[in-house]
Design brief:
Shape of chain A: elongated
Largest interface: B-C, 46 and 43 residues
Chains: A alpha+beta (about 100), B mainly alpha (about 300), C mainly alpha (about 220)
Strand content of chain A: 15-25%
Strand order of the largest sheet of chain A: 2-1-3
Radius of gyration of chain B: 20 Å
Order of helices and strands of chain B: HHHHHHHHHEEHHH
Strand content of chain B: under 5%
Oligomer: heterotrimer
């Protein structure tokens, strides 16, 4: 069986995919992952998952203009200029 | 080349990264597998010349360091063959091809080791030559391989220090000990100069075109000479090539033409230790087939 | 030689020689993941030997390396059990399983030793040994019904019992069947004294570089 190994380098950091080991069961997988990804105490912790248990999701369609919920969907420069003109004010930095 | 293949080539040449499940041209996949497999083979065969000296290491520290170094190499083989397996060629098939001589491993691992001097010189200079190539592979277009190269390069950093430590201790020791280092350098220089391969211009190297390799063979060799010849000379040691010198104006190292016939002869399995080492691997592999059967075979 | 030094050397020699034998598998274990794991165990054994030699070296006004390498073969106090050259995986893994069980008992006793240095070192070694024991357990479990493994354990059982004194050997005789899930064939404990046939050859190879230039730094 192939087990995928995720490792956390330091406390507070996210677990990142580090590689995979071949093992017949959890006990062997733990021993082998510990060795390959921790024998120099280079990892804070490891997560092990049999490859068969992992599901990948990788298709994210954006066909119909979904910028409304992203920062790049908002351009306020022109409106702000108009609003300041109406109020007779200038940009805060100029005062 | 099909339009799709041309597009893929443009993509990788522009720095695009490829993951395991992505579509890739047959040629790309085939070259990748062959290249990465040879790397795995080399790590595995590189173990054999060094492991004899684990048993003979003259201090506890050296014994631990050498065992750890060889362990790292086995670990690298594991990482590398996993990548090859995910590209479609199972580990056992890779090992079959290695042992039968169908696939190759690097020239340096076909030669004998004779003294403790070899232990120092291999860890210092042979590993240095390898690391130069490995650092260039950090930019490989095939991302799973580039990622393991990161771990491999990080682990190799102690190997060179260990090698240098062994060499410095010998060089600062008795005349006989200094002699061990010089004699080892004299024997290893030829294979070292052949290690990076025949100079092929980057723009005629398909491996560079597909961005599998990002460094031309001669560039790697120059980097090796530039980094390590001064280190050798500063210890009062010599390099057995009277033509070796650096052109200070161009920065290019000149050297006697390496024996490319020897290189070809050796990597096709005719090196002094090639068959003996493959036979040794075959013997143990066959002997332990029952273990793989008992432990790995039922695995889903 | 003090009693403490003698005890230290006996355990250190066991660990050194077993670590030396186990390190021979680096590069040729049955599969790659196991090769890496097994090598760490061998390194730990040698690391333990080093720590034990360092303690003894202070008592004996010498160095750990001199104790490890510069004694004559007859001066080593290792059990024949650790000296055997076992280049068949079933034998090697059987020895690992049995040695770990014996070593665990020995360390339990050492952890409660009135000498704080001994007790402290034993506690440190034991923390690493936890993983050796897990490794032994996973293999004993996987090979429980494998005839080669059973044959190997049976062949080595008397020697394993001989690693410990009579009182502790009795504990081993109780624990091992519980741990491996079956009872090895009865065997008389082998004597600890003296060395196996292959020890001289082992010593020759282990010390050949060191002896090539006596007194040199390496």
């Amino acid at each position: 069986m192939i087990y995928e190994v995720f490792r956390q380098e330091r406390k507070g950091q996210a677990f990142q995919h580090a590689g995979s080991v071949t093992a017949p069961n959890d006990a062997f997988a733990e021993a082998y992952a510990r060795e390959q990804y921790g024998r120099r105490q280079e990892s804070e912790a490891l997560w092990l998952v049999p490859r068969a248990a992992l599901r990948e999701v990788s298709d994210f369609p954006d066909e119909l203009q979904k910028s409304y919920h992203r920062v790049d969907g908002y351009s306020l420069k022109a409106k702000l200029k108009e609003a300041r003109e109406r109020a007779g004010t200038t940009a805060p930095a100029d005062r | 080349m099909t339009a799709r293949e041309a597009e893929f080539k443009e993509y990788v040449q522009g720095g695009g990264q490829v993951e395991t499940g992505d579509w890739m041209p047959d040629e790309y996949r085939a070259r990748l597998v062959k290249f990465i497999e040879m790397h795995g083979n080399s790590e595995l065969m590189g173990v054999l010349p060094e492991r004899e000296w684990i048993l003979r290491a003259p201090t506890l520290q050296r014994k631990l360091a050498l065992t750890a170094k060889v362990q790292d190499e086995v670990g690298h083989a594991q990482l590398i063959y996993r990548v090859v397996e995910d590209l479609g060629k199972p580990r056992e098939q890779c090992l079959d091809d290695l042992i039968s001589g169908t696939s190759k491993f690097h020239n340096v691992f076909h030669y004998p080791t004779k003294t403790w001097g070899d232990v120092g010189v291999i860890a210092w200079l042979v590993d240095a030559a390898a690391i130069i190539s490995q650092k260039a592979l950090l930019k490989c277009s095939y991302a799973p391989y580039a990622r393991i190269m990161k771990k491999i390069c990080w682990e190799e950093s102690f190997h060179i220090l260990h090698g240098r430590d062994v060499v410095l201790t010998l060089v600062n020791g008795t005349d006989e000990q200094r002699g061990l280092v010089q004699e080892a350098i004299d024997r290893w220089w030829g294979p070292l100069m052949q290690f990076h391969g025949n100079p092929i211009a980057a723009d005629s190297d398909p491996m560079v075109e597909w961005r599998i390799k990002s460094q031309a063979n001669e560039e790697a060799r120059q980097q090796f000479l530039d980094g390590y010849v001064p280190q050798i000379w500063e210890l009062g040691l010599s390099v057995p090539d009277p033509a070796l010198r650096k052109d200070e104006e161009t920065g290019v190292w000149h050297y006697s033409e390496p024996d490319w016939e020897e290189l070809k002869h050796v990597v096709t399995g005719h090196g002094p230790k090639s068959q003996e080492r493959l036979d040794f691997r075959r013997r143990f592999r066959d002997q332990e087939a029952w273990v793989r059967q008992a432990v790995l075979a039922d695995a889903a | 030689m003090s009693e403490r030094a003698q005890r230290l050397l006996q355990i250190a020699d066991d660990e050194l020689v077993l670590g030396w034998r186990d390190s021979e598998w680096t590069g040729i274990a049955p599969f790659l993941e196991e090769d890496v794991a097994f090598s760490s165990i061998a390194q730990n054994e040698i690391g333990h030997a080093r720590a034990l030699y360092e303690l003894a070296a202070r008592d004996l006004d010498t160095t750990a390396d001199e104790l490890a390498f510069d004694r004559a073969p007859e001066e080593y106090r290792c059990a024949p059990f650790v000296e055997f050259r076992l280049m068949d995986w079933a034998d090697t893994i059987a020895r690992r399983v049995l040695y770990e069980a014996a070593d665990a008992i020995r360390l339990e006793v050492l952890k409660t030793d009135p000498d704080p240095e001994l007790a402290g070192l034993a506690a440190k070694m034991d923390r690493e040994e936890v993983y050796h024991r897990l490794h032994a357990e996973m293999w004993a479990d996987r090979l429980r019904d494998e005839p080669r493994f059973r044959t190997a354990v049976n062949a080595l059982w008397g020697h394993a019992l001989g690693v410990l004194d009579a009182e502790l050997a009795a504990v081993l005789a109780e624990r091992v069947p519980e741990q491996i899930g079956w009872t090895p064939a009865a065997a008389a404990p082998a004597a600890r004294n003296g060395h196996s046939e292959g020890f001289r050859e082992l010593w020759d190879e282990m010390t050949m570089v060191r002896r090539s230039i006596p007194g040199a730094s390496w």
